[in-house]
Amino acid sequence: MKCEIKKADCESYIGEVVSEKIDLTFLDPPFNQNKEYLSHNDDMSSSEYWSWMRRICGLVYKHTSKGGAIYFMQREKNTNSVLDSLKSTGWEFQNLIIWRKKTSAVPGAKRFGKHYQIIAFFTKGKSPRVFNRLRIDPPLLQNQKHIRQNGIYITDVWDDIRELTSGYFAGGEPLRFKNGERVHRQQSPIKLLTRIILSSSNVGDLVFDPFAGTGTTLIVANQLKRRSLGIEVDQTNVNFIKDRIKEEREVDNIFKFRNEYINTKNLKNIWPFDEEFEKTGFTLQEHLFKKNVKHTNLC
Ligand SMILES: C[S@@+](CC[C@H](N)C(=O)[O-])C[C@H]1O[C@@H](n2cnc3c(N)ncnc32)[C@H](O)[C@@H]1O
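Above: inputs. Below: predicted complex with S-adenosylmethionine.
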C-alpha cells in the first residue's frame, strides 16, 4: 500500500506530487504562535498567515475528489479564520469538532481556562462521499442507569483522546532524539487520526497530509489500508517519518483501539481484520494479549 513522504514546501509542490485525487486531508499546519520550528517561520503577520492558509485550502480543494473531506485543526481563538479559509475556497461545512484534550486547561486570569482545540470538518460538495458512522461506548454518566446494548454514535465533542503533552503523560508515543528530547512538540496522537481516517475514508482511499510533521497520518492510514501521501518541509522530520514507517513501533499499533469501535456496523469493512487473527479463533482480548498490545483508553 502506498505510504509516501516528500520533503517539500507543500504550497509549491501539491500540484506536482498529487497525481491522483485526494479523498481525505488532515490539515494541521503550524499555528503561527512563534513556536520554534526547524525550517519554518512561525511568526508571520496574521494577514500573511491566513492568506497562506486560504491558498493551501484552495489547492487541496482543487485536488480533492467529489465529496472528499478535509479536517482543519487549529486553536479555538482562530475559529472564524478557519471557517472563512475553507468557505471562501469552496468547501462545505459539516461539523466544528471540539477536541477536549483530557489534559489540564490553559488557565486564564481574566477569562475562562482554555480546554479545547477545534477541528473543522468540511467536504467538497454538500454530500460527503464517505461518512462512516462510528459507535463508541464511553463510561456511563452518573445519571445514566441503563447499560447500553451497542454503544452510541460519536458526536462533535471528542473528549476521549489524550493530547501528547510533555512529561509523564506523553507516554511512549512521541518521537524522541537519542538524548530523550522530543523531536516534535506538535505530534498528533495516533488515536485522533484513527478516528478521522475511519470516519471519512474507505480502504484504498488516498489520505493526504500537507504538513506531515512526524508522519502520524501516514502511520495510521497505512495500518487502516488506505493509501497515503505526506509533505514535510523539514529534512530532520522527514528522516524521522521514514524511520517511523519502517520501524512499525509497537506503541504506534492502533489495534489497541479497535475494541472501542466494536459496535460500529461496518467495522470489518472499514478496518479490515487481521486475517492471521481471524484464523486463530482467539477473542480480540486474547489476540491483543498475545501481541502484547495493552487495551487501554488512556492513549
Ligand atoms: C503542527 S506540525 C504537524 C504535526 C503532525 N500533525 C504530526 O502528527 O506530527 C506542522 C508541520 O508542518 C511543517 N511545515 C511548515 N511549513 C511547511 C511547508 N511550507 N510545507 C510543508 N511542511 C511545512 C513543520 O515543519 C511541522 O512539522
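The chain has nine helices and ten strands.
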